[in-house]
Amino acid sequence: MARKKREKREKISKESIKKAMRVFRFIKPFRITFGFGMLVLIISSVVMMAFPKVLGDLIDSANSSKESTVNDTTLILIGIFLVIAITSFFRIYLFGVVTQKSLALLRTETYKHLISSPMSFFSRKRVGELNSRITNDIALLEETFSTTIAEIIRQMITIPVALFFLMFISFRLTVFMIAVIPVVALIGIFFGKYIKKLSKHAQDDIATANGVLDETLHGIASVKAYANEFFEIARYKKNIDSSVHTSIKNAKWRGAFIALIMFAAGSAIVSIIWYGLHMVQMGEITIGGLLQFAIYSALLGVSFGGSAELFSKLQKSIGATEHLMDILEEETETVSLEKSEKISIQGNIGFKNVSFSYPSRRDIAVIKDVSFNVETGKQIAFVGPSGSGKTTIAALLFRFYHPENGTITIDGKNINDYQLSQIRNEMALVPQEVMLFGGSIKENIEYGKPGATEEEIFEAAKQANALEFIESFPEKFETLVGDRGIQLSGGQKQRIAIARAILKDPSILVLDEATSALDSESERLVQEALDRLMKGRTSLVIAHRLSTIKNADNIIVLDNGKIKETGTHAELIQLENGIYKNLSTLQLTAV
Fold first, then answer.
1. Domain count, the chain
2. Backbone phi, then psi, for 343, in 5-degree steps?
3. Are residues 227 and 131 part of one domain?
4. Which residue did the predictor score with more confidence, 549 or 192?
């Protein structure tokens, strides 16, 4: 079913061509270079078509009594090859320049668009798919811009010019050739479609196997923990075996196709030569004319033979372009793609009758008529069962999503009235699952304030209780953290994230269960660093361990998207049958 959908999507329609044509806007800045490339392409194609005519004249000039005729024709032939050589160099070079510069612009624009897309976009799209679009699809376009377009234009010149010369040389022989060629063409079309279908199925199986490989390597800890190596190997082998079976079947039919096409094409050529020699004997055509006819026929045959493959490449390119254009047509956030000016805010936060459902689940309300206020420098904590809406409140504050009803204000001003990048610059997030980039510790801390001095980075690490473990590494701040921070422990990653937030110096701080996955010692060090970070800042703490929020100025208890209880730790612990009291009792019992 999935294969049928893919095949249906790849068919060329007016709409897909119209959408694909938009990619040429990336060539527009280099249109002069592209124009010169087209010019030399046309010149080389036209000059190439003169070659068979001049070669035939050279053969016929052997019967001439004038030696100068042979010499002159030979010089013309050498001149033709010189022009072809020069124009071919410039064609390849100019198209290469346009291709690389255009695709660099397309890659950059696609990346900018992706990075500016809202969180709702990423909740609908898989990262692997998006990565494929910016790599595989653009790689397809590279071949299209550099060779496929040139070949299509060359064929548009070759086919009519070759037909004209064939009919000019001998109308009778052309008619005979046209009667023979369709047999070969029909064989090629029939086999070509079937072989293409088999190749597509083999590629699908390989793609599925690669998906299994990607999932397995990313989840290798789970695979080993469940001792499911045998299961993953069997799953991978099943797709590989399917690919091998399809590829062998493909090889068998491709071999049969090549054998049949060689016999049919060879028989067709022999038939045309036989008929041509008969015409030579009758004096209806010269040997040179027959040679001209044979070369023009070969050029025509190659052009027609390659048209199916070119059409297939064009089809894939249009599909790839359509996918890219779909991404570029997605709505983006109004973020600044340059460093925005810093604004000054106090940090008063207000939620008034806020309701929200995720775009992918509109029928399920995650936040229901939530209202609360946080004064400047105060600490407010959110607790409640999983799925109660705690993290969603943080997402709405960062404007990752927009509420369906109600308003969110900062310093009494609607949050939507702030420039998005500027207001986010005044906030920092320390999540439970810290995402570190694959560079050095220094680069990861500096991410909070690009261009920070070494003294600022050092001081931020010190305040985050990260200096001790950083200094213990041989390369200190230049230590590479590995892919997603794999070289560091959970507590170390958390302290790097805190150092990053300290360096940013935000007015509003959001802590999303920042200590819930840590051991006691790491939690102590991280909590000390968090206490320093929260001092004097408006802080929203999403808590799992209630012991970490005992000193919060206010605690909001959420359940099923609604506020059920509010108050300090001392007040909430007194509520009979209260959610907070029950959660506290459960945690104490668990300890």
1. 3
2. -115, 165
3. no
4. 549
